């Protein structure tokens, strides 16, 4: 890839900028020059390695449950009055790491109510956090004392308390995190959807697409990393923004890298992490929130299906495209496979996870 450097501003800052461009070009190719790392360290620039070089952290990842390279299945509710059926298909990506997507697709009877529980958790820097979410998030939501009287409040409380536990146990669960999109169907009549990050849900209503969850980042709190912007580098991969700011109390300069996808409305750290919202990510939590966006949809005859998917799908496909592709496919498993197959055909390299829920 051709190296394009910004206009020199002179002195040591110019050297830092040139080294940063060399660094990110090397990083795209999966390598980091030792001389570049040494150069930055010699300049007394202090940075957090796994914020910038996630591929250097392999040896520090905690051992967690293995996720299969592909997974598929289907099911349906037991209710004869308000039928709900689903199909899911997950495909391991080609990003050079093990599968980090996890899902939930099951039905439970709780206090005489039939619940459909569906979720996709898209991990980064390891699979420990999404694995934990798969096993615990819905239990935490249903365990909230006000779930039946105020589902929205219960969902938000459970997201926050779950994130708090993950952060308090980062030594065991590792430095990574996860996005999430969850859907709860109550008695086939009410749909509650929530998300943080870029995994999202799209509804088909009267044959038209309707995005249920939002992936625009929340406003960042405080000055934080926005004290000074020193460099940007635009490439076909996206926009790289480098921040230099001083911690005056200890007179240390901090170097931080953000990556903005050009084909997405989601700001990301290192091309993996939605900047404003995610579970986990201990080192970045000052700039992240675990507050979900929530949406309630009463289910009637106009509601046909819901698509839940990770960004491995949404990077290469729009909401309307996805709905148009599967709205005529009655088998939800066939619909989920159709979407993941198309994402692969469009050269998506990330893990791809999709759940299609059909009503009626």
Automatic annotation (TrEMBL):
InterPro entries referenced in this protein's UniProt entry, alphabetically: PP2C, PPM-type-like_dom_sf, PPM-type_phosphatase-like_dom
PANTHER family in alphabetical order: PROTEIN PHOSPHATASE
Keywords: Membrane, Transmembrane, Transmembrane helix
CDD domains membership: PP2Cc
UniProt KW Membrane keyword: yes
SUPFAM superfamilies: PP2C-like (SSF81606)
Name of the molecule in the record: PPM-type phosphatase domain-containing protein
Lineage, top ranks: Eukaryota, Viridiplantae, Streptophyta, Embryophyta, Tracheophyta
The keyword Zinc belongs to this UniProt entry's keyword annotation: no
Transmembrane region(s): 237-260
Record-linked SMART domains: PP2Cc
Single GO MF annotation: protein serine/threonine phosphatase activity
All copies of domain PPM-type phosphatase, residue ranges: 85-359
